[in-house]
Amino acid sequence: MSRAQVLEVPALVPYFGPRPAWIRSRRPLSITVTEGVYRSRDGIVVTVPAGYVTDLASTPRLIWPILPPHGQLIIACLPHDWGYSHGGAPGFLPKEWWDALFRDLLEITPKVSPWKIPVAHAAVRIGGKGGWKYGWEPFEACQIPDWPALGQV
Q1: Which residues are 48's β-sheet partners?
Q2: 149 has pLDDT over 80
Q3: pLDDT digits (tens, 9 = 90+) for 51-66
Q4: What angle do CA 38, 74, 104 make, to 5 degrees?
Q5: 108-146 as b/e, with b when 16 or more CB fall inside 10 Å?
Q6: Apex CA 52: angle with CA 17 and CA 149, to 5°?
Q7: Which has the higher per-residue pLDDT, 109 or 60?
Q8: Bridge partner list, 52
Q9: pLDDT for residue 152 is more than 50
Q10: How many CB atoms lie within 10 A of CB 42?
Q11: β-pairing, 12-15 with 29-32?
Q12: Environment class of 4 (CB within 10 Å of its CB; exposed 0-12, middle 13-18, buried 19+)
């Protein structure tokens, strides 16, 4: 079995436009400026398009000293959020697959302490249940199509 890979690292900038309905947290948001491309260990390629809005790691403030919502977790959080924001769509991969991709990407991310990987993976498996299948909009609605017009670039 091969390892997960990051094929293209996306650029992110802060996002201050309208809060998308699929993001329930009040955390600061980011938007992808370029697409991110990832390959899972089973060879499936995931592309997170430019214009995708995310809150990255939706970790409770209480555990930020252990699992901060920024830093090294970002590499694994972005495709995981993308998968969750499409969860439940016909023919889309199941929650368990996206949680496994999150874990696999953490394993290849430099400077992620090995003990944090099972903790973060357990957190998305347990805490992510509230975000999966939250009545997400169709695929296209998970992007802000004209995000430069919102004054972010």
Answers
A1: 36
A2: no
A3: 888 888 877 778 788 8
A4: 50
A5: ebeebeeebbeebbebbeeebeebbeeebeeeeebbbee
A6: 40
A7: 109
A8: 143
A9: no
A10: 12
A11: antiparallel
A12: buried
